[in-house]
């Protein structure tokens, strides 16, 4: 059985999907745009600020499920420009510091929703 995970501390879904879905011991977090939920707009115009906000949104959804960034086992990072990889990675490394880091894929996408520079999805395990 699956359960919807929702928090007002992360942006609301902009379509027919959930912020997160808990299924068994896994939590699947939908791709998080760099939207500041309080402002309803992008938190920054640069890749580092947008990466920070996307990962903050993920952390808030994890907290709503009683988990933390240490529970993340896989992420997928979608970037508008692979040339931003090093700058994105610098911020990403601040959020994942445990002994066992999550597996990750990073891909360049021709276009992301709302013109974002980055979108990040995650899978966590209890």
Describe the model.
This protein has 126 residues and is α+β, with helices and mostly antiparallel strands. The protein has one domain: 60s Ribosomal Protein L30, Chain: A. Helices cover 23% and strands 33% of the residues. It is built from two helices and eight strands, in the order E-E-E-E-E-H-E-H-E-E. The strands form two sheets. A six-stranded mixed β-sheet has the order 1-2-3-8-6-7, covered by helices on one side. Strands 4-5 form a two-stranded antiparallel ribbon. Strand 6 (72-79), helix 2 (85-95) and strand 7 form a beta-alpha-beta unit. The chain is globular and about 40 Å long. 33% of the residues are buried. The mean pLDDT is 97.
CATH superfamily: RutC-like
The low-confidence parts are: none
The helix fraction, in percent, is: 10-25%
Count the domains.
Answer: 1
β-sheet strand percentage: 25-35%
If you compute it from the alpha carbons, what radius of gyration comes out, rounded to the nearest whole angstrom? 13 Å
Number of strands: 8
C-alpha end-to-end distance = 15 Å
Instruction: Describe the largest sheet.
Output: 6 strands, mixed
**Overall SS class:** alpha+beta
At the first level of CATH, the class is: Alpha Beta
Order of helices and strands: EEEEEHEHEE
